[in-house]
Amino acid sequence: MYDLLDGLTVVEGASFIAGPSCALHLHQMGARVIRFDMIGGGPDYRRWPLSPSGDSLYWESLNKGKQSVAINLSAPEGRELAAAIVTAPGEDRGLFVTNYPVNGFLSHERLVERRPDLITLRIMGWPDGRNAVDYTVNAAVGVPLMTGPAGLAADEPVNSVLPAWDIASGAYGAFALMAAERRRRQTGKGGEVRVALSDMAIGMLGHLGQVGEVANGGDRSRSGNALFGAFGEDFLTRDGRRIMVVAITSRQWTGLLEALDLKEEIASLERELNVSFVKDEGTRFTHRELLKPRFARAFAKFDYADLHERLDREGACWELYRSLKEAVTDDLRLVRQNEIFDNVANPGGLAYPAPGALARLPAETRGRVSAAPRLGQHTEEVLADYLGLPQHEVSRLHDQGIVASSN
After folding, report:
1. For the whole model, what pTM was predicted?
2. Alpha-carbon distance 4 to 343, whole Å?
3. Which of 95, 219, 269, 315 is deepest in the core (most CB within 10 A)?
4. Residue 166 catalytic?
């Protein structure tokens, strides 16, 4: 955690990945994040993976360091209280991250009646309000039909386990919220910013040239594990280890050839085809079926330990395939000796490595990673200190079931 956003308060009323990750990024750069949930937890409070005690590792991990308020959002007074937290006065307040519907008790139009300079960052599935998650958005934009083995039927989808558009929307949302906050500091003007997963997906495919590609020709076909447009494949070593190698730049290509003792054989193929694999990365993809068996034979000549040394020495771009468990336990670079991780004792009873800010600021002091709160842990603190409610009013809200505390 860093302190770049120290003094800023963000209120979060969101579930699943994009909204909570957006607020988490802001917290880990120093913002105070107050999260409100239904009493008993929202729709993602028990989401898998779970600890042996049944607590959600997912919820714990996305809500590290936030303050938690539990409110009965089905009651009018509970909704009024949530709106009051969102719109509480103060120069460094009035920032709201949510994935609640556009039209409802947390609509921007209703909230700005209480605070005209409010900035709302609203995560959506589709811009028109239709529901969506990564799996359905991917289906809509065609990604599962360009993923998978080259020989797979053209109409058989292969889904990705990585929620790319949720992740991207959370990060983009944090950026967009800070852009809006900067304008507010300059002009006093707030506003609503909407980030839709469908826009993120098709927009990023557009940024990568894929929309332009299919708009002027055929559809993108499957290419298995090959890297589209350059050289990238997986190969087995003599002792059965599987490696992914990529050669996009000419330096990566020549380093790979040097490491595998393939310079002469590939030069002969270049003369035969009248091409230059060094100068034109696209030719490596075009002729991948001729290149792949040559590389496969070369990889099969070396054990992994010898190949590891050779590839690193020549500056090749490569990595060993691992399971996530192997990555966490065996590769010291990723977790055990990675400064972005701290070992954190969590409210569910487990201690495990948890990441802080994903950016590294070499000249700044990195703070420790904080654990997630217990649901409702900060209810009384937020009501009394943030909203300024007297103790008898806080007690009444508890007694009437409008709010709840973890104790």
Report:
1. 0.95
2. 23
3. 95
4. yes
Residue-by-residue pLDDT tens, the chain, 407 positions: 899 999 999 999 999 999 999 999 999 999 999 999 999 999 999 999 999 999 999 999 999 999 999 999 999 999 999 999 999 999 999 999 999 999 999 999 999 999 999 999 999 999 999 999 999 999 999 999 999 999 999 999 999 999 999 999 999 999 999 999 999 999 999 999 999 999 999 999 999 999 999 999 889 899 999 999 999 999 999 999 999 999 999 999 999 999 999 999 999 999 999 999 999 999 999 999 999 999 999 999 999 999 999 999 999 999 999 999 999 999 999 999 999 999 999 999 999 999 999 999 999 999 999 999 999 999 999 999 999 999 999 999 999 999 999 97
What CA–CA distance (Å, rounded) separates 277 from 365?
45
Do the domain assignments include residue 332? no
Q: Which domain holds residue 239?
A: 231-320
Amino acid in the structure at residue 282: G
Q: How many helices (H) and strands (E) does the chain have?
A: 16, 12
End-of-domain residue from the set 265, 286, 320: 320
From the list 166, 261, 303, 331, the catalytic residue is 166
CATH number of the domain within which 27 lies: 3.40.50.10540
Structure tokens at 223: 């290419």
Domain co-membership, 278 together with 360: no
Tokens of 169: 């929307």
Kindly state the greatest CA–CA separation across the chain.
Answer: 87
Are 157 and 114 members of one domain?
Answer: yes
The Cα–Cα gap between 257 and 309 comes to 14
Which residue's structure tokens are 């302190």? Answer: 3
CB-count burial class (<10 Å; 0-12, 13-18, 19+) for 24: buried
Domain-embedded: residue 222:
no
Same domain, 239 and 133: no
- Flag whether 224 is in a domain: no
Question: Would residue 329 count as lying in a domain?
Answer: no
